[in-house]
Amino acid sequence: MPKKPPSDKPRRRAASEASLADLLNSLDEETLAQLRETLRAEVGLVDGGDGDALALFEEFLGRVEDAAEPPHLEDEELFESVVAMLTEVAIDANGGDPSARELRGALYGKLDEALATERLDAAGLVLVAKIFSDSGWSVPNRLKTRVVELLESEEPGAAGPVAGDLKSALADIAEAAEGDAFASYDALNSVLAAFPSEAAARMVTTLAAERAPVLLQTLAGFAMHRDPLLAAAAIEELKSAAKSGWVESLLVERLVRMRPWLPLDRQAPLDEAIRALRAHALAPVEADRPQAARGFILACDGSGAGGTLASLKAAGGWRFVAAMTKPSGVEEVLSLEGLRKVEADATVRGMRDSVLAAQTDAAGIGRYLQIALGENLAAQRPPPFKLIAFVESLGLGPVAPRAISPADLIGEILESLPEAEKDAAAVAKAHKAVLGGALAEQWFEAGEPVERLLAPIRGAKARAKALLASYLPERRAFWTRNCALTAFALQQDRKTYGALGRHLALVGRDLAEGKPLDEIPLMRDIAEMSVRAYQSRPGAD
User: Which end of the chain is more exposed for a tag (fewer CB within 10 A), N or C?
Assistant: First the structure.
């Protein structure tokens, strides 16, 4: 199992300017996956059918089963290909592709076979879990249970990367991370995905033992973990770390920054840790911050995903950073580092050509993050640890979550408008103005509930009518949010988008106030686009 955390620096490729421009050709899940894989220095997405994917996974399991030593270069390339394939399958399955859902089930079935035949040892299962975690898949509990069974059955002193000295392994991770707490956290977190919560939490408690600054910072990452057991263990260790000597002031600063992002039941224990650590903090060290060049807020796509992006000029070259959001708040933070200016410009240019992306400044990005973090709190899903790095890169001050409903956000957008721009005539104009364009290509419904509803119905018109009557009413709040956040984004860049943000806010207000969906042209359009998407599936009737 490789101990070195994945690098955030992309490999140089031929025609890099063109590939970066293509990277953000659309704000769909596949594009984000390609960006994620580039960041992790992965190979490109795997082409081929279900048989190729199953064969690749079988080869991976066989390579893991036969491994008697750490992977060679060819093994690592295979593992990267498996991560790319699994990521693509997950994206397609989550996007409503029935064949991808079937393939996902078949791949889980292959893993079940390996577990049932006890082909893999503990180290192999940990590697499988890491690959699943890196691909955005859930690690099955049956795998975690098997890992624990194997470890408990080992004789004392058994060798191997899992049963060996945990403190030594953590020190190796810290050394490989070269002082990068975010890389250290990602590496350790993907390994801990192989263990049940209780066991993983016990491992987290060893992080402070070596007193390495990067591991104390890694503990801060686990304080933001979505598993409350791991978070509680990390916070307790942070409190204990204050009794053992001096700590970096940056550690305290980051804990203070993340505190309001966490569920309320974590804030009081974290306050105790902050007070204890502050008394033993070294003098602050002035950080070398990159210079923000251009910032953007993205319109929501049909899944409710959006985000904010920025290009930055740093000492080591240009950087492109992104904080991607879903209805549950900030979901993923990504960065491309060490770029040339022409590459950063190509990335921005490709994005602007095909995505509704409103240009804004750091303050606008901060306001957007406040709303997204409010959704994290409401969903009880803390944002990724790497959001700290995103906020620090932009030089933002405290970013407090803002709990605001879509209806209230729309009210704020419309509040300052003169009455002539929000009266009945303005509303009628708005309903026409939001149709067509980039939104029409992305705003539609997909997934199993839609498929179950539409399958027994014949005819596009009848199917659209059924969606309007029995499915979309349950999605009124979702589409109100899409209108509100997209209107908020577009209002940041009225030079580019004119009155579109205002028009969308007026349509969103009608949605929020309960206007019948069949009287809202945008919703009729969404129903029709959803039917087209359903009927364009491979093998669709």
Answer: C
